[in-house]
Every structure is written in structure tokens, then in C-alpha cells.
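**User:** Here is a favour to ask of a fellow structure person. Please take any protein you like and set down a full record of it. No explanation is needed for now; the record alone will do.

**Assistant:**
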Amino acid sequence: MFIDVHTHKINSDDIPIIYNIRINDDAVTLPHDRHIYFSAGIHPWDADKVRSVWYDNMTIMLNYEQVIAVGECGLDKHTSASLEKQLEVFEKQIYLSETNQLPLLIHCVGFSHEIIRLHQSVRPEQAWIIHGFRGKPELALQFLKEDIYLSFGEKFNTESVKITPLNRLLIETDESQIAIENLYQRIAEIKECDVRELKTANDLFGI
């Protein structure tokens, strides 16, 4: 029932996780474990370091059955890479998301308007997910108007959780040490629903 849709740690329990792989020069060997799935992407912090082999490695990764999402990728105003370069790298991963029919996990810091603009321009068939969403309800509504999913981690705006429909709400631990079960319980209390109703990740990823 519980699914951690974005994490940087592998736990020993049997709760399904989507472990983030940050693509670079190195090829990656995936462990085979029935509860570990993966996302693969080029982080915006690395946008000005990208070489063609990175896309080669990513294309190979996306052919693995265990890789069920593209990302994290996106835009970040605090990195040294120019917006132009970040957009170039991000748009290539949007293409990979569409051609491989995989959801897109998005890192978005300070460029929400660009994400929305791109979504309106591309009109993707695959789901877009804003990971670690901490924004205010006004921003949440802008994303939700575009049918973009919001994934909430340890820190979030309670009012944004309240207004997010269950069918657009996902839950993650990211880099925190909090147990995913505890996050599910917190979200369920805010939404005044049974934890079993928080099953959007099951439906979206088919886990």
C-alpha cells in the first residue's frame, strides 16, 4: 500500500520505493529486488556538465524494466547553469519521458512559471510530478490546473495538501530520514481520509 515515490536511500524493509539515479559519466548496475524501482535523470545542478555519453547512459537505463520514471530533472534558479542550458537538458528529458512512456519527476526551484509554460506548450501524454512540493496553495492550484501531480515530503504547506485532490497527490521521503508510513499517516490526517485511500502512486506506477 505504501510507496515512496522519490528517495535517495535504500531501506531494508519491503516497502516499494522509487530510488533516484543521478545520471553522469558512469554506467550503473541496478540491484534486483522486488520492492526497489528506479527513476533516472539528469539533475539541473549538473546541466552545465552534461556530455553526450550521459544521454547514452540514460537511454540504456530507461530500457530496464525496474526503471519506471524519468528524473529527477527540471529547473533550479540556485545553480550555476544558465536557464537556457537547463531548459535544453530538461526538454531532452521531456522527450525521453514521452518516447519511453514514463512519468516525469520534476525538480523545480524558482521556475514554476517555466514548468507551467512548458507543460502548456508540450501537452505531454505522460504524467508530470513536482517532487518535494512545499509551495503555497496559490502555486499548488496553478500546477493542479495543468493536471500536474504534487508529491509531498517531510516539509510541506498544510493548506496545499488540503486542496490537492487525492488523485493528484503523491508522497515521498526524498533525503529525509522519516519513515514513509509516518508521512502517509500525517497526510491522511490532514486529508481526513483513511490511509488506504492514498493510492495514487499505486495507480500511476502500477505497483
